[in-house]
Amino acid sequence: MTAPAGPPVGSAVGPDRPPLGADAARRRYVALTALRWFPTGLLVPVLVLLAVDRGLSLAEVGLVTAAQGVVVLLLELPTGGLADALGRRPLLVVAGLVGTAALAVLLVAGSPAGYAAAFALMGVWRALDSGPLQSWYVDAALAADTDPHGAGGGPGGAPGGAQERVEAGVARGAVALNASVGAGALVSGGLVAAAPALGWPGAPLALPVAVALLVSAAGVLAVALLVREPPRRADGARGRRALTGAVRDVPRTVVGGLRVARRSRVLLALLAVEACWGFGMVAFETLTPPRLAEVLAGSVAAGTERAGQLMGPVSAAGWLAAAVGATAAAGLARRFGTAVVAGALRVAQGVTVVGLALLAGPVGVVTAYLACYAVHGASNPLHAALLHRQATRENRTVVLSMNSMVAQPAGALGAVVLGALADGASLGAAMLVGAVVLALAAPLYLPARRQERERADVVSAARPPAPA
Length: 468
What we know:
Layout: H1 22-43, H2 47-53, H3 58-86, H4 88-108, H5 112-129, H6 132-145, H7 159-194, H8 207-226, H9 236-263, H10 265-285, H11 288-297, H12 304-336, H13 338-358, H14 361-389, H15 396-424, H16 427-440, H17 446-462
């Protein structure tokens, strides 16, 4: 007797449920993005400071964080192919479970080896997590926008309008990401300050890690409930054959992604931007907390707990500034062009990191940090929009994964190089090197600018003349 078919793989519901409308997909995407990144906000103010407090040098911190980049380099494209072949929801659930395990290891790590294990798990988490949620939203929203039964969709046959609405949804997700990280950072600083009063038995800097662990576990459940995909076969032998075929399709999907990159000068240039960005981000993401500890107490080691308390509200303000930047990005892009604004922001971010390196006192460091994150928040949705223009439904997740695959090893290299430079020379010197690399990415947006101009010329030529 044949067993009855179960719910479709990749779907949280049975096949009789109607598809999500564009508005519902956007709301779920924004909510899940916020929940995914809240634990990151909890970690941002304390991650490096906790490692230093547990005896690691900045050079060792750079080396252990490199484990994350190496793992992402090995897994990013294959897991992107699995998402396109098997479905985004199963991959997101597994990613959340791995991320929760990474936080558990981080909570108890007390040596470079322990930290390396935690960051390696974070690399697996990032490789599985990069791309599927945003790709799910983009495809769900585009499908609803051309489906006459999809709630919140626009009229069929208006792909240009649908694409604009989807890009606006991606921008809202960027706003939610930045606001969620900011809220998490604010809570983190409060937890560090309140840890003794709350009876926390460990180091105050470790309490935000414990809370991040709990929130990450809740995020796994939310993905399982809210992400809905088209039905996939899951009944007995047919389901096993489908799974086997999907695994066999991974190399083909990966090769297709590499071919897309090789054939597109625009995509290659965007990936090069991401490499510079990943390297330079170390200067303001990893080195700002020890830089603040340095200006507060005269040395990094002496100021870790005080900096941990202050970095909470400072990080919150920074990520809220990033949310403001993300909100402004769409308007700037409409007025000046997406690629032009993206290139200008690379230079602007380099300038703000120079400020982080050279300005004296906590007020100067905090001011430069806020400006840096406002630029960072504006840059993210513009770069994502340019990437999506180079992708199709079939390879979208792979394209996004390739972008992350480039960023993570570049970030690992930046962590090693800038961490060693911070120990061997000074934090300021390391930050200046990062600033130069960030600014050097600006000309790499020129191919995207040329493509943008060509498309505008085509649209203008196809437009009917105005009536006399």
